[in-house]
Design a protein that fits this description.
Length: about 60
């Protein structure tokens, strides 16, 4: 499995960041929580793994 590398100088406040990573089905609240998760763990995981974990995190939070 290959993983694309993350763009190192991309900031979470840039419109491109939201355009690239926000899911069309996410509410504003879900996106803000997932974005914070992505920011927190940006350097800890490769991009595919990080995005998967972020989706699962939101799924768990909103399944209750």
């Amino acid at each position: 499995m290959t993983t694309e590398t993350k763009i190192e100088n991309k900031t979470s406040t840039s419109p491109d960041f939201e355009k690239q990573y926000r899911l069309i089905t996410e509410s504003k609240n879900q996106w803000e929580l997932r974005k914070r998760f992505i920011e927190k763990y940006w350097d800890k995981y490769d991009e595919d793994r990080l995005l998967c974990l972020a989706r699962e995190y939101i799924s768990i939070l909103f399944s209750k």
